[in-house]
Amino acid sequence: MSRTENPTILVVDDNEVNLELARNTLEDEGYRVVLARGGAEGVLAFCRELPDCILLDVRMPGVDGFSACEQIRRLPGGADTPILFLTALRDVDTFDRALRAGADDFLTKPVRPTELVVRVGSALKLRRMSNELREHYELLKSQRDDLLRLQLQKERLTAFVVHDLKNPVSSMDLHAQVLLREKGLSDLARDSALQIRSEARQLTRMILNLLDLSKADEGKLVPKRAEVDLRALVAEVVADLGASAESRRVGLSSSLAIERIYADEDLLRRLLTNLVDNGIRYAPRETSVTVTASAGALAVEIRVADAGRGIPAEMREKVFNPFVQVEEGERIVAHGSRGLGLTFCKLAVEAHGGQICIEDGSPGTVFCVSFPHAI
Q1: How far apart are CA 333 and CA 247, in angstroms?
Q2: What pTM was computed for the model?
Q3: What dotted CATH number matches 8-111?
């Protein structure tokens, strides 16, 4: 393409009158005009001049306009150079053949000077727009590549966290269990071993939450639904978190009006564990965290309530975002289980086709989870 200030127009025609008319008309408009007398000369002129636009006659001896157009389209830079066909043949077959050869526009002779200027100007404008669109495409492609690179790095980090950290955390829990079997263990050492087990289980939940968040991003968090004994499951969660609650002098209780629920047992267990653990960490001493369940007309509703400070109404949607904290002055009032617990809960519930919301406990916070009945 021409790098001069004025665009270069290549005019290819075997008629001297037509060449001079095109030259005079376009030079008056400030264009640089290159003339070629015939198709073969036009192809050579294109290689030499790299014009911004081509006016190409159809009927010429030797290499006609169709052949010249096809050759130019195959040359470097020829694919995106506007080519306007000029012909005295006003028929559909000629028009269709010109389009198949690669024409961008089609003018019939005799061409009025005003129309020629307008059509050339339009072709050049479209080319500039095409170049700008290409630049936008390259920018978008670069951004896409950067995002893909970040995604791959995230997947690699997730794989490291899940596979490389899960095993040592499980080993910590196992060694804590071995210590607890020692009959001569002092009360202080026993409390420490129990605390190690509690924190190890918390780390395991965090690792699994991170894995499930990654699955959800990829659309792979698909619950394996089955009938679950809800009473037994809640009892397991309460037992697992009993030591943590006792160390904070918080009670745990449940009141379940239903016995079974149709859900993914593993996801439901970790969801309840995250919600109860969240309640324990923000419940005042000598209060309780309570799990209740009831069956509505369309869904089973599970509520986890504490008697803490509560979450302001304007923050009740935001706390489900990763790493969000609710602060009051310099004190953290509530946040999502080390930053990912509540995010996981929302994803797990929505994967079941349910909903999770926060209600005012007056005082405290109530997390309400609804699971649709089995179909």
Answers
A1: 19
A2: 0.51
A3: 3.40.50.2300
